[in-house]
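ingest -> fold -> write
write: protein_1
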Amino acid sequence: MPIYAYTTLDDPLGPLGTSAQGINTSGQIAGYYLDSSNSSHGFLYSGGTYTTLDDPLANAVAGGTAANGINGAGQIIGYYRDATFKYHGFLYSGGASGTYTTLPDDPSAGPLGIVPYGINASGQIVGYYFDGSGNEHGFSYNGSTYTTIEPPLTGPDGSFAFGINDAGQIVGYYLDSSNSSHGFLYSGGNYTPLDDLLAANGTVATGINAAGQIVGYYFDASNHPHGFIYTGGNNYTTVDDPLGVNGTEVTGINASGQIVGFYLDSSNQSHGFVATLMPNPAPPGGTTAAMILRGTIDSSKPASTRSTISAIMRSWRRTSWARSEPIGSSPASAGSSAATPPTCCCAAPRPARSRSTTSPTTTSPTPPPWARSA
């Protein structure tokens, strides 16, 4: 069972919430925050410093800018919205004082545009586009050609590509004909569905690293999200930030196994986090595999040894954690005036059994067209 040390990431300029979206091999993190006007701004977190990323073509009233992914070279992918509420993809390069390049639209995209989400070392980009009817379809883009990424069981409401590793393996999710969400892995021309065994209301895959470890989140019977790591077969491990009393969503993983995402506190305020793998504690002398797997303890052992073994077994049967101090503004002070609904998910579409049918061009600019279900 993996043990993580969690660190909260709250951009000091984001009183209405922060979400960490992607992390590269150097530990640089891309994400976005919501300001006091509920407008989105991308950020780069590197070396203990937050740098705001606002595409100069973005319209703040329409929704602003969101940074969604980052590769080993520090290139950042994301989107901005213009005054007509259209989504445009951008590529940001050059560190804290870099340049923005607007991506061409997918030829199949309608008037709502494209939303890029992930980028690998070769500069391959994945995301999704809106067709003329406003439905979403996953894509990959190699710098010259767009390819639609859509599992064969996808229903009319579409698919989403969120993560790509250096081998070109792609993860995301699709909505089937019943509007239920399923994660997927696209590798070698084949689609593999990913459904967390604990999911009651859908699974979303968001990131994949060089080792093929996949992260994402699933929804329980109460529609609360829980993060997961998938390592093949039926090996799903739940990863919940201990401060996320209303849910955790894992959005990225790097080659070292560091993960990023956001959690929702008791007020449904969102806070970004980064979690780093810690070594598992060694069992005490005399512990056998059978004792750990079966939960049996030799009664002839001293009481102190028995209690230590019990503690280890309890630890290995749940996700253990440690927490560092928050980076940026404290969760207690950030967003004290936040509204009851989760406030920091404008750049992270989450599946719902019933989706909003309201056109995003006529609704409030901040929420996305896939509004969360109650």
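write: protein_2
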Amino acid sequence: MKIFILEDNSLRNKFFQKNLKEFDVTICNNYDDAIETINKEKFDIFFLDHDLDESIEKSGNRYKTGYDFAKYMEENKTPYKFIYIHTMNPSGARYMQSCFDEDLTKIIPFTILFTNIEYHKKDIKRFKLEEVFSYEGITLEKEAL
């Protein structure tokens, strides 16, 4: 299972690395690196932040956000199995979600993600290419837990 994380906060990234170590995790902390990475590799699960306060793009002066990244994914039809939007910016999260299939996207305030990571890890482990099942009325791919 390949997981992509767009997050600019180094403490949060350490949290992801510690708690998702059984998965193949790639972390990018800015828009430009994220675009370069998803153009080279395919990922199953995405964790996306909206506010990328620490990022300065090589591509121009305009501040790029997770929404810009979501629009890029939408426009380029980047494949995914599921997307978690973990920003603490509710309006930004809704804009980002509008770029994706709403049934395959979950908005999670980061504070809740911190306290419920084990629950979400079980969610992640359900995805697999070979088997399909219904989960909360959504057809998803399943991996035996």
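write: annotation protein_2
The first helix runs from residue 10 to 19.
DSSP finds six helices and seven strands in the chain.
pipeline exit 0
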